[in-house]
């Protein structure tokens, strides 16, 4: 009753007025970019529908006009336009307003039907707009699929399912940009509950589709999936972690790491995954990614603070303790260097926070934040809490590790000396006081545990050793006054000589490093240091044998008989020998005792030689290490003694000792070169080894290399294989030798084996080695080329080796061609002068194909495939180029059984001809037609005018101009049966609108110029009238006509004069069902995608730049 009364007061609006208002609303939003205008237009447009579209005829007019305008909005030759996006957003928000007011689904039904209709449009731009529209509907709709009452749901189940099917179809689109838009739209419903009655979504939900898009073949789609994925479960983080580690595109890795830094709680992944992520960020080649480490760790320490204190504050002072709490959730014991870098990144990020308030004195504010007596971290006021017996050793090691890194950061050279002094005063005591504290800590907790540790005690012992080393590492950052330095030196020698304190290799290395760097820094102090160490060893032995004295000053470098007798009569226990061996090992690793005199020789005979027969593997490893260090300084010792000990160890020792020996032999080769060490290693008596270069005896220098190859290919032991592979890589990167061909062949095949693909550590090592090896020099690339045939022969006979059965030989060959590409050597100018090594690889391939003849073999196809991707440059001799052309032509003539092989070889032959033309331009016109790789083709209607200048404006060649580029035009025209005397109108006199080259203006008869802006304004103003279409057609009819044209030029002209502009297509009557979509049948030229804009209110673009 009220509606009738209102109709008496308000006149009924006719259909034409409704359509004009709809057009005006869209135009208003199109030309504006502010939110108030959008809100006012939504109110007006919703009121128009609710109050004036009461009859079916009025609603039909409203929807027809809306469809008519949406057809225009979704047609474009360019990227998504923000103005058009605002218009689509207006329609969607109006639909929501109408539903909230009167509860009607009519507008949503219309939008769903529009998406279904345009889903399969030819133009990818239209398909992108469809995905955008579906995403807008999902993003601002409150969807409740589990609610049985559809009247309470903004989007009905039917519409929801239809839109989902549209997005799923476009998710599989062949166009990258369309798939990206579909992924972005699916992100709005990925967390919606799945309706069990909807089978399509049960098979693959929106969340599953986005997760699968992380493996899309296009990097842009993977990046969009990373940004869109809702990471609420542990498996979601693992998906993104996998991309951060293993994706081949660095940009994708960067985006994955950025997403993890923003949204990943460290509790959602395992400890190993946290360490791997930190290592990946630290080692990433992009500096922006490395800077994300601080952002990631800052979020992690905030989470650690919350878990520890249930405090959500992010004040920098409060978050300082989070850097300590974080160590509770990260295994710093086995990843010391990585966690050190992580802590430095955390401190640097905290420093940035303090810098905003404290400026240049931010480092003092950071030190002040850690200096409170009640602070959880150690500082000058509370460091003695390490002596508390109630604190577990694991927590003490974390406190000491954090304290050491905090002091190292605050006292680093990046800050001025005055600030470092102030920080030192806040964080650590004086050196003498600190030395007394460390000695007290050692007396309390450093006692040796002679009993075999139990399962839980072994971890405690490891943390105790780690804690002591961290305390010793703090000494170099203290004030080095005279009394403090003396107390420090006495403490270090006391640790070495005390039988109570347990010694191990890392502790002695740290002590020796501190002594030689700070107490005996000069070369002339080395002799004094040697006597000091000998006194310590004498003290250790004398406690076990009070009447013994190992060494004493000798007048020369030879051992006296009295000293030998003394050494032979000594009988010391195994712990004493182990302690002496550990001290001697630390001395030699310092690198300062490189002269083997009488004292070093006596220590070696007394300590090292008997240790080779000890039962403890750690003692034997220390003995091999000392022998290896002496061998590095003195090759005669290696020649006569040590190499044969290593050779026996490779055959008889256990795995841990073999690993140490592999590392030692690797260092020996780097010190003395491979040839000398290989001569020592050969299977013959030491006396038979040639000492002079004039010796003509030929030795098998590959025996050592074959031994390393055998270890590297061991499938049963991953650690041994990794150590041997790393050793081979070190050798090949250090020097260039012909023996490396066997090793390169082995490593190349090894990198594609299935067991190696399942070993991330070894796979990562090999995947990084080959690109680096190939980028070093052209000689390395030449070595890779020379092993091509050997690798292929091994793969042909792979049935004899079960480990190579799963290798894809085509992938191996293509990777080899990629690594030897000349583009890798762009930064090495001298090597580029010699030309690409692909010319040698091409010759190898063509000669092999020439010998095989016409054989349809899979390896023949691989050879042809590799030849088709080879890159040749101008740095090639004419003789070499002619030889390649002759070989390729001969192979093509003899090959007829496999068309696909011929096609690939023709690609390579065409590249050779192109190279010939570049080197000798005169040869282009003297080349026989049968050898020419360019085939003339008739122009099609889709060919642009610029692509066929000879047909659109022919110029007859001058007589005798045989060397001009257009000399064969008459033959081309004759083959195409075109009359050269026929008049062809010029481009300027014909209204041309090439389908793939949109214009910003349409020229008609050289008299009137209609820009797109004027066309669009008139389009919005006149509504349904077709004045523009009539004006264009009248202008076309007024075009001056020339003589009749036949042939392809005539077909081209007829087509261009009959083409409809996008405006014509949109201006068709919406009642016509034959071509309702209008411009959806137009194929626009694909344009480069700009930065994607998802927010509609973006700066307005001129319409003249977007329409044709």
Automatic annotation (TrEMBL):
Residues 579-871 form the Nuclear condensin complex subunit 3 C-terminal domain. One of its GO terms (biological process) is mitotic chromosome condensation. Residues 1083-1092 have a biased composition (Basic residues). The keyword Cell division applies. It comes from Acrobeloides nanus. This is Nuclear condensin complex subunit 3 C-terminal domain-containing protein. Keywords: Cell cycle, Cell division, Chromosome, DNA condensation, Mitosis. Residues 918-931 have a biased composition (Polar residues). Belongs to the CND3 (condensin subunit 3) family. The keyword Cell cycle applies. InterPro entries: ARM-like, ARM-type_fold, CND3, Cnd3_C. Residues 932-953 have a biased composition (Low complexity). SUPFAM superfamilies: ARM repeat (SSF48371).
């Amino acid at each position: 009753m009220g509606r009738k009364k209102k109709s008496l007061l308000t006149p009924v609006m006719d259909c034409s007025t409704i359509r004009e208002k709809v057009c005006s609303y869209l135009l208003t939003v199109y030309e504006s970019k502010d939110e108030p205008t959008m809100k006012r237009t939504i109110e007006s447009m919703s009121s128009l529908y609710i109050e004036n579209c009461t009859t079916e005829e009025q609603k039909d007019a409203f929807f027809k006009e809306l469809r008519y305008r949406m057809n225009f909005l979704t047609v474009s030759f360019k990227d998504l336009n923000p103005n058009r996006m605002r218009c689509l957003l207006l329609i969607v928000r109006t639909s929501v307003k109408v539903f909230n007011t009167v509860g009607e689904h009519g507008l949503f039904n219309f939008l769903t039907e529009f998406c279904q209709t345009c889903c399969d449009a030819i133009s990818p731009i239209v398909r992108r707009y469809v995905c955008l529209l579906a995403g807008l509907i999902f993003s601002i709709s409150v969807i409740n699929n589990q609610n049985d009452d559809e009247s309470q749901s903004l989007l009905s189940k039917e519409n929801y399912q239809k839109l989902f099917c549209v997005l799923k179809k476009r998710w599989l689109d062949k166009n990258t940009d369309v798939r990206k838009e579909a992924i972005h739209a699916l992100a709005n419903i990925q967390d919606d509950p799945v309706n069990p009655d909807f089978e399509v979504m049960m098979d693959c939900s929106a969340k599953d589709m986005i997760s699968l898009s992380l493996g899309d073949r296009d990097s842009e789609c993977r990046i969009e999936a990373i940004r869109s994925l809702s990471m609420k479960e542990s498996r979601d983080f693992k998906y993104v972690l996998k991309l951060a580690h293993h994706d081949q595109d660095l940009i994708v890795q960067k985006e994955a790491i950025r997403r993890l830094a923003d949204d990943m709680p460290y509790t959602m992944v395992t400890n190993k995954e946290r360490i791997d992520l930190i290592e990946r960020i630290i080692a990433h080649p992009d500096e922006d990614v490395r800077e994300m480490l601080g952002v990631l760790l800052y979020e992690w320490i905030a989470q650690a603070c919350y878990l520890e204190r249930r405090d959500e504050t992010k004040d920098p002072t409060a978050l300082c303790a989070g850097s300590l709490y974080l160590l509770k959730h990260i295994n710093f014991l086995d990843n010391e260097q990585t966690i050190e870098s992580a802590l430095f990144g955390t401190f640097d990020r905290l420093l940035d926070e303090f810098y905003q308030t404290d400026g240049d004195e931010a480092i003092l504010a950071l030190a002040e934040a850690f200096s409170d007596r009640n602070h959880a971290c150690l500082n000058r006021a509370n460091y003695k809490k390490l002596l508390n017996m109630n604190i577990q050793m694991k927590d003490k090691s974390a406190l000491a590790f954090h304290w050491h890194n905090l002091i190292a950061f605050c006292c680093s050279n990046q800050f001025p000396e005055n600030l470092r002094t102030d920080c030192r005063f806040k964080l650590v005591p004086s050196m003498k006081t600190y030395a007394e504290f460390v000695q007290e800590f050692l007396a309390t907790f450093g006692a040796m545990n002679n009993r075999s540790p139990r399962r839980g005690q072994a971890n405690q012992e490891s943390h105790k050793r780690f804690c002591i080393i961290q305390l010793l590492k703090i000494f170099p950052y203290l004030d080095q006054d005279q009394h403090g330095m003396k107390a420090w030196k006495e403490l270090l020698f006391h640790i070495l000589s005390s039988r109570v304190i347990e010694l191990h290799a890392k502790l002695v290395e740290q002590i020796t490093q501190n002594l030689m760097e700070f107490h005996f820094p000069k070369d002339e102090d080395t002799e004094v240091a040697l006597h000091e160490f000998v006194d310590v060893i004498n003290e250790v032995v004398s406690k076990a044998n009070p009447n013994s004295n190992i060494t004493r000053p000798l007048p020369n470098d030879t051992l006296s008989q009295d000293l030998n007798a003394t050494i032979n009569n000594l009988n010391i226990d195994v712990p004493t020998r182990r302690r002496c061996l550990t001290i001697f090992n630390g001395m030699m690793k310092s690198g300062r005792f490189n002269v083997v005199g009488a004292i070093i020789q006596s220590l070696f005979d007394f300590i090292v030689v008997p240790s080779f027969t000890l039962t403890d593997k750690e003692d034997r490893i220390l003995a091999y290490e000392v022998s290896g260090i002496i061998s590095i300084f003195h090759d005669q010792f290696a020649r006569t003694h040590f190499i044969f000990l290593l050779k026996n160890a490779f055959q008889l020792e256990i795995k841990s000792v073999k690993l140490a020996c592999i590392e030692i032999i690797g260092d020996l080769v780097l010190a003395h070169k491979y040839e000398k060490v290989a001569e020592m290693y050969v299977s013959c008596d030491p006396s038979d080894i040639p000492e002079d270069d004039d010796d003509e005896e030929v030795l098998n220098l590959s025996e050592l290399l074959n031994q390393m190859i055998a270890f590297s290919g061991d499938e049963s032991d991953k650690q041994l294989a990794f150590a041997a592979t790393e050793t081979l890589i070190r050798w090949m990167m250090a020097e260039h030798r012909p023996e490396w061909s066997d090793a390169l062949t082995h490593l190349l095949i090894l990198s594609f084996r299935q067991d190696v693909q399942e070993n991330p550590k070894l796979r990562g090592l090999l995947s990084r080695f080959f690109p680096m090896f190939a980028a070093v020099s052209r000689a390395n690339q030449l070595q890779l080329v020379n092993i091509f045939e050997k690798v292929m022969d091994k793969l042909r006979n792979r049935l004899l080796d079960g480990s190579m059965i799963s290798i894809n030989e085509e992938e191996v060959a293509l990777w080899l061609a990629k690594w030897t590409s000349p583009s890798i050597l762009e930064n090495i100018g001298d090597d580029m002068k010699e030309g690409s090594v692909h010319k040698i690889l091409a010759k190898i391939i063509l000669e092999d194909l020439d010998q095989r003849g016409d054989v349809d073999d899979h390896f023949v196809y691989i050879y042809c495939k590799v030849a088709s991707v080879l890159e040749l440059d101008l740095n090639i001799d004419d003789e070499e180029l002619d030889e390649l052309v002759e070989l390729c032509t001969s192979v093509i003539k003899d090959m007829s059984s496999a068309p696909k092989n011929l096609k690939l070889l023709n690609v390579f032959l065409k590249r050779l001809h192109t190279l010939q033309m570049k080197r000798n331009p005169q040869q282009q016109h003297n080349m026989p037609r049968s050898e020419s790789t360019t085939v003339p083709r008739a122009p099609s209607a889709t060919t642009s005018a610029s692509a066929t200048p000879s047909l659109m404006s022919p110029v007859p060649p001058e007589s005798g101009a045989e060397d001009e580029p257009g000399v064969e035009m008459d033959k081309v025209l004759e083959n195409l049966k075109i009359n050269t005397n026929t008049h062809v109108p010029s481009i300027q006199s014909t209204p041309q609108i090439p389908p793939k080259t949109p214009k910003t203006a349409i020229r008609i008869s050289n008299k009137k110029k209609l820009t797109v802006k004027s066309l669009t304004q008139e389009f919005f103003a006149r509504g349904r009238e077709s004045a523009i279409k009539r004006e264009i057609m009248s202008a076309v009819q007024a075009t001056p006509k020339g003589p009749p044209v036949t042939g392809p030029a005539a077909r081209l002209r007829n087509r261009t004069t009959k083409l409809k502009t996008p405006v014509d297509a949109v201006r068709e009557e919406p009642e016509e069902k034959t071509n309702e979509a209008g411009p959806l049948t137009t194929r626009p030229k694909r344009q480069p995608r700009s930065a994607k804009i998802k927010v509609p209110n973006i700066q307005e673009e001129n319409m003249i730049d977007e329409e044709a």
